[in-house]
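Before the break, one more example. Copy the sequence into your notebook; we will annotate it together after we see the structure.
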Amino acid sequence: MKKFGSLLLVSVFAGAITLGAYKLFLEKPNYAIVPQESSANIITSSYTPTSARGSGINEVDFTMAAENSVNAVVHVKNLSVSKGPSSIMEFFYGYGGSQKPQVGTGSGVIISQDGYIVTNNHVIANADQLQVTLNNNKTYDAELIGTDPNSDIALLKIDVDRKLPYLAFGDSDNTKVGEWVLAVGNPFNLTSTVTAGIVSAKARALASIDQSFIQTDAAVNPGNSGGALVNTNGDLIGINTAITSQTGSYVGYSFAVPSNIAKKVVEDIMEYGNVQKGILGINTVPMNSPYAIENGINEIDGVYIAGIEEDSGADDAELQEGDIIKNIDNVEIHKFSDLIGYISSKRPGDQLMVTILRGEDKMDFPVTLK
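Here is what the structure looks like once it is written out:
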């Protein structure tokens, strides 16, 4: 009986180690927001868009936008070396570990004929070497010019001896919900691919990410991070960044950094070497928060000012706690992500016209960002 008990204990212990090893090395995590870096699996899918105007998709011509975009979208390869255990015994007992080459992939967009390329920060993060492959399959080493993790935007440069096709930044503030768009990426170094959809929402906020996104239903899959979101005129209105998924594959929702934010980040990196952030200088709470309700706020639209930072632009302009921001420069502000999206495209010293609701009165205040 004693021998049986010992065998049972050994079996349970061995089973626990096996289960632990399975969870550590084999079990896949469940993500809510999936950065689209690399994937070795090619998943076939069908996608049949329907007209938002109800008279058939044929009334919208995507060919010009596609032709203008595919040659300006590139494949980005992130080469790095990681040090880690090469076996389960090394993991438990240590023996130094081994150098392991790692490859991550994504997409990028050429934004100038001399080889500047915008992509996502998470595509190039921790890279030891970066390579860019054009749509004609020519590969170049790329230099990292600068990056902004907060907006998930990075700027690369390749040296070329000819003028490259590129995409011009459009005005993402003029993008409308329901507008047709194309998502263009180069996910598996198979040359650029194009999918179509509509703008589902603007100024969309994502959990744990203090940023404002364009949401679209264009099919976007792993490897498309850093690719282009363009309108039917071929204007670059966003940089594809993330999908909402529990599997890592497209399930109907994808998100892009608005072009006005991406353009401002790129210009700051090129001119200053870092991102210049304009600060309004207010503290906010949701309109339906207990704090706002206790202070007699019945509005559901706008941004409630819960506090003013001393010596800030808002303080100098004499904005007050309890004011509700309704517009900035005639751009409607419905929620905090609208405010963040607009301010993110501005720099210190920029002057804004802020329209607020104070009690029953609407008032305009010129505010200089600091």
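The chain has three domains: 33-39+57-69+166-272, 73-157, 282-368. Residues 1-56 have pLDDT under 50 and may be disordered. Try to locate both features in your own notes.
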